[in-house]
Every structure is written in C-alpha cells, then in structure tokens.
C-alpha cells in the first residue's frame, strides 16, 4: 500500500496561513453615530476614490494630411469599425515628423510612419506590449502631439 503524505513544513505553513488575521482596509467613511471597533467594517463610501485624469485637448488637424495618409484613412473607413477606434496622431520624434496609428484591437501592434508613409516601427502592442522594439524610446521622447484623425463611426 502506497501512502501519500504532506511534509511537516508544508503542513505547518498551511495551518499557519489559515490562522493568520487578515486586515482589509477599504475606503470608508466613519459612521454618523457610535464607534467602529477594529473588527467592524463600516459601509464603503459612495464617493469616487479615483481621481479622474483630464482629457487631453486634441483638436483634429485636417490640413496637413499627406496623400498617402488620406488614402490610408479611406482604406480604414472601407473596413468595419474597430474597438477601440483607430486614431492617427502626429508627433515629432527623432528629429522628424511621424504619424502614429493606434492598434485596432487586443494584442495587435500600433504603427509609426514617417512623412512618406514608410513604417518606421511598431512602438507598442503585441504579446509583450512593447511592440517590435525598434523604437523603444518613442513614448518617452515624442513631442508636439497633434490628433490628425480618429474613426468617426
């Protein structure tokens, strides 16, 4: 007959873990009457405990779209709407004007184009979230953000 057993150290850890006092702190308001002891948990507040991040003021720039970009946008509009929607933003990066296209979904990669429409790199997305690694400093060094287009559908 074969016996299975748990080593004593594992058993001690399991028993010790089950007997520990766990304290959970939640954002709460004190009760209007009475006292709260260490073991009581008052009702959570209804107030939002997260500070909202203000929206960036990004007005769409329709004037400076190169021909290749106008055609690319028409190609996007000929496909189904993506969630999240595709956005194209112009930046200054590595001494040149570039166009950043957001990833259409999930683990897909975003794309960074030069002014002629050549792909420079894929700055983010993919399984690692870090893109193709060819412009790893893009997020830290990009400047002069200007929304060029976002899917209006």
Describe this structure in words.
The protein has helices at residues 8-19, 67-77, 138-141; strands spanning 87-93, 96-101, 111-114, 119-121, 143-150. By secondary structure, the protein is of the alpha+beta class. Strands 4-3-2-1-5 form a five-stranded antiparallel beta sheet, with no helix packed on it. The N and C termini lie far apart (69 Å).
What is the topology?
Layout: H1 8-19, H2 67-77, E1 87-93, E2 96-101, E3 111-114, E4 119-121, H3 138-141, E5 143-150
Antiparallel strand pairs: 1-2, 1-5, 2-3, 3-4
Tally of separate helices:
3
Question: Low-confidence parts lasting 5 or more residues at pLDDT below 50?
Answer: none
Distance between the termini: 69 Å
Overall radius of gyration: 27 Å
Q: Beta-strand level of the residues, as a percent range?
A: 15-25%
Class by SSE composition? alpha+beta
Instruction: Assign a percent range to the helix content.
Output: 10-25%
The largest beta-sheet arranges its strands as: 4-3-2-1-5
Total strand count, please? Answer: 5
Largest sheet: 5 strands, antiparallel
Average pLDDT metric:
78
Element pattern in H and E? HHEEEEHE
């Amino acid at each position: 007959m074969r016996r299975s057993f748990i080593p004593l150290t594992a058993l001690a850890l399991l028993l010790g873990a089950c007997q520990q006092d766990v304290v959970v702190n939640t954002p709460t308001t004190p009760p209007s009457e009475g006292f709260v002891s260490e073991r009581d948990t008052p009702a959570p507040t209804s107030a939002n405990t997260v500070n909202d991040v203000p929206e960036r003021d990004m007005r769409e720039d329709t004037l400076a779209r190169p021909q290749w970009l106008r055609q690319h946008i028409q190609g996007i509009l000929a496909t189904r709407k993506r969630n999240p929607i595709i956005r194209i933003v112009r930046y200054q990066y590595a001494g040149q004007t570039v166009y950043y296209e957001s990833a259409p979904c999930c683990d897909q990669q975003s794309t960074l184009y030069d002014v002629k429409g050549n792909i420079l790199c894929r700055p983010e997305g993919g399984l690692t979230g870090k893109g193709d690694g060819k412009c790893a400093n893009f997020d830290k060094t990009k400047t002069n953000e200007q929304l060029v287009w976002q899917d209006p559908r």
